[in-house]
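[retry 2/3] DNA replication and repair protein RecF: previous attempt timed out, resubmitting with same input.
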Amino acid sequence: MWIQNLKLNKFRNYLSQNIEFNENINIFLGDNAQGKTNLLESIYYLANAKSFKSFRDKDLIMFNEKEMSLDGIIRKNQSFKNVHISVNENKKDIFVNEIKYDKNKDLKSLFKLVLFTPEDLNIIKDGPNFRRDLIDDIIISVNFSYKAVKKDFDKILSQRNKLLKNQRSKYFKTELMAFDQQIIRLNYKIYRFREKYISLINTYANKNHLNLTENKENLTIIYKPNIRAKSMEEYGEKFSKNISDDLKYFRTTSGSQRDEIDIIINGKDTKKFGSQGQQRSAILNIKLANVNLIENTSQDKAIILFDDVFSELDEKRSNFLLENLGEFQTIITATNTKSLDGVSSSKIRKIKDGRIK
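[retry 2/3] DNA replication and repair protein RecF: success.
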């Protein structure tokens, strides 16, 4: 699966732009604030009908304009999908081969994307919620049913926490019991999903990391669930033991929202002891594990988007990346020509002021 053509109309700083993509490596060079990230955002939006940068669709419309549109041709072997998305201040329309799609989730079945941005370094540097989100996003990319489980859990967790702050409610105990039945079931599902997929992600990520480091470094993802259990009943028993803390602190103190995920290189926690280069490489290889997992589960190839990747990797790692991603469509933005000596000029284009040459 790959994106063959994309037309941008009044999207961010692109007034009108038609782009033909190579089936493998595509590199877009330009200074900052010229439209490199906006281009990747448009591709991401074509696949997800939402942005990775903005919560509001109308923010994607060019300044002083009232509507934007994207038209893309997605190709798989000899079949084609024509995707059209238009957004104005009041609504969003999605069409695939001239058939209207009502929900964003329908669009996700067309093609898969894996995105790497400089902000992904925060996944290691910041709190465990970033690492949980990374794993959850990877799981959803290959098993969409998990999204509904997470959505239901987040909703019940929020409602339970609100109830714990209102313990004088007449029906407090009855309502708490009802919430607990639901949250234990959802917690156990999340625990089992994460346990299964972290094991798979770890296998691919370590293989990628060994290749990148010439077998000098082992990358390990360690799952530390807040509650470990062999059955839902056991999970419920352990969860219920913390009810006194829940009542004391007016919030849910145990469960999957407190799971920890450590990223380890050669036995050392990368957050505490990893160099900046090791942290970058670890996240990169986990993202590439997502690509491997998509291919393994769907027999299709994800499209890889790298935003300003060369500024985050040294020349050795950049060269390795270019040499080993030829079988996937890879779209890279960069601010310089570092590591591009061996890349054909037909794969490199320049972006300036929202125009691609």
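[retry 2/3] DNA replication and repair protein RecF: The mean pLDDT is 93.
[retry 2/3] clearing retry counter.
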